[in-house]
Amino acid sequence: MEPTPTPPHDAPHPTKRRPRVLIIAIGAAIVTIGLLLAASLAGDGDNHNDRSDRGETAATTAPDEQATATTVPEPGAGGTGPAQATTTIAADPQRDDVFDDGRWRVGQDLEPGRYIATDITGAACDWARLADNTGETVVAAEAQVANQAIVDILPTDTAFRSRGCGTWTRYTPPDPPPATTIDAGDWVVGEQIQPGAYLVARTTSCHWTRATGFEHTTNEIVQTDGSAISLEGPMHTQLAPGERFTTKGCELWTKTG
Fold this sequence. Notes:
The protein is built from one helix and 18 strands. It is an alpha+beta fold and 257 residues long. Strand 6 and strand 7 form a beta hairpin.
């Protein structure tokens, strides 16, 4: 029987490779896990940045309404104390159906139509329909109007000037019933005041006009205080539907029939 050959002294033993391979495999796994973890953290950071950017944009971008309106606090009762309400005022300086004192171009700054001013302080309202933009050519005008003013602005007018009248708005008929007494100002017979016979005490300061329309031209006049036949006793007038009745400096008119 032949003796079993003895392997050379420096030949590798098969079992000596297993620990090194296992260590290398574990190390590779650890590196892979580390890379995956790093990638995950980096992705979370990007997502967080994206959310932050979107949140910042949403917080700093104003809504469309803020670009066109401003909210102004109103004072409390009597003009003192904390604000009780807010009023939204349009930021657009060109408002076709609402305008304040000043000179306005018809067809550009405001549209033609019938307008009314109701916040007049005292008898301070002075307005004019103009045939030019300089204010030198007057089509029709009224001065020292109290309480409320009503005027038809025509497409043929070039401009409209207002002083002390406050805010003008498009005229719309009020809810019925019409009144049976008449204070100072311009009135639409049949819509604001009832048609019929009215009287007022005679005073030297009382001036009034019945007219067929609201252009405030002389050819509209039907009757004035100067048309009265009698110079004694109260003044009388008969108002028809659709007419304009303008009264200045008079006491309260009362319906008699």
